[in-house]
Amino acid sequence: MTAATASAPPETARFSRTTAYVDVAVVVAVLVGTNLVAHFTTTWASVATVPIAAAVLLVLMRRRGMAWSELGLSPRHLKKGTLYALAAVAAVTAVIAIGAALPFTRQFFLADRYATISGALVASMIVIPLQTVIPEELAFRGALHGSLQRLYGARGIFVAGSLLFGMWHIASSMGLTAGNAGLLSLFGGGVWGQVAGIGLAVIATSIAGVVFTWLRHHTGSLIAPIGLHWAFNGLGALAAATVWHLSLA
């Protein structure tokens, strides 16, 4: 018996390693294809592809015999996940408030995509949860987490899962430097500035992936990483719009 099999939940023990390899390969292939379609095809594809792919992965993994607990969706972990989610949102709120208040870090909130309060509210409460946070957590801390757990155990989830989550953000960060006043002043424009922005995004989201994975692993629930993920993105959007508004006042 391998270390990964010994540490796996009872419901995963009956599956062969061949089955586990197939599951991981399928999830990764779907994620790669989804990322390419979402960022290099049409506008409608960018809106719908990730949520559809997350739903497909959820159904597919269930048909492959994955339990709700392996996907982080077991009701018995809901209470603990919710408590950690609330704590995570509170912590991120405090950090963002401090960052937006300090002159040195305030410039990093000047992202032109959130130049209006109304636009940031729609993004924070509707677009970000439905198009980004929930689908990504279902895909990465749900389907990918469950398939990696069967094959490699916790170590594989933290290493491979977090690195894949960082690489997932390569395409979406291609215009990051040009659209952020702080990053533009730090790295400059041009090709190297764009490369630096992409590298920073991959590192930052890989680290975030480790934290999201820890919450998922510790609580057994997707609610906790969903809460923290939304706090970073949703509250960050509201803070960016607020800083833009105040800078124009």
UniProtKB/TrEMBL annotation:
A GO molecular-function descriptor: endopeptidase activity
Residue ranges annotated for the CAAX prenyl protease 2/Lysostaphin resistance protein A-like domain, each copy included: 121-234
Keyword line: Hydrolase, Membrane, Metalloprotease, Protease, Transmembrane, Transmembrane helix
One GO biological process term: CAAX-box protein maturation
Transmembrane segments: 20-38, 44-61, 82-102, 114-131, 152-171, 191-215, 227-246
Transcription regulation keyword on record: no
Claim: Cell membrane is one of the keywords in the record: no
Protein name in UniProt: CPBP family intramembrane metalloprotease
Native source species: Rhodococcus rhodnii
